Amino acid sequence: MDWKIKQLDLEFSLQELTDYFNYLSSSWIHLQWNSSMDNAADANKHKIDGVYGWGIQSNLKDLTVPCPPYHVHKDGTQEYRDTALMFGFAEKIKQAFPYSRQHSIAVHPPGTVINLHTDTPKWIKIHIPITGNDSSYFIFEDEQFVFEPGKAYLVNTSILHGTNNLGNTNRAHLFFKVPADMIDTVLAVKQL
Length: 192
Prior knowledge:
The chain is α+β, with helices and mostly antiparallel strands. It is built from three helices and 13 strands; from the N terminus they run E-H-E-E-E-E-H-E-E-E-E-E-E-E-E-H. The chain has helices at about 15-25, 90-95, 185-190; strands at about 5-10, 30-35, 50-55, 55-60, 80, 100-110, 115, 125-130, 135-140, 145, 150-155, 160-165, 170-180.
């Protein structure tokens, strides 16, 4: 894969996504993960104070506990199961991309930095921004991008990438993984 980011031609309702996010924020706090729960050694490599989110799918044995959006596989299996959060907008995503996994939402407050790293080349990510700002960047070694709410992005996470929220507001994304060998199938999805 010789590309970094592809904006998807995917139609969806940003209001429906925002409503889903707001509902999780008000009524599903008991399943919210936060950075203070992360004991992973990799957490020390990044500035993640205040980062929080929800694992919409989990590979943990107990689906009634918060599942961290990051490092999920380190405390579970490779099998992902739906949590009680798989409804509404998230369910539409799963129906449109039935081969996807690790559906999550992560919120990066101002000052959050995820340093450059690579993910497995077998999977790539789709990011759907919920909120953001003009100073919140998705970074590759030589380029930085601002992801706009209301759009969806296919990200080649097999090359060095990271994020940096230099803005004054939170950056919230719904994201999930799709098989790297299914790019043509992913690009063919036009509507949720």
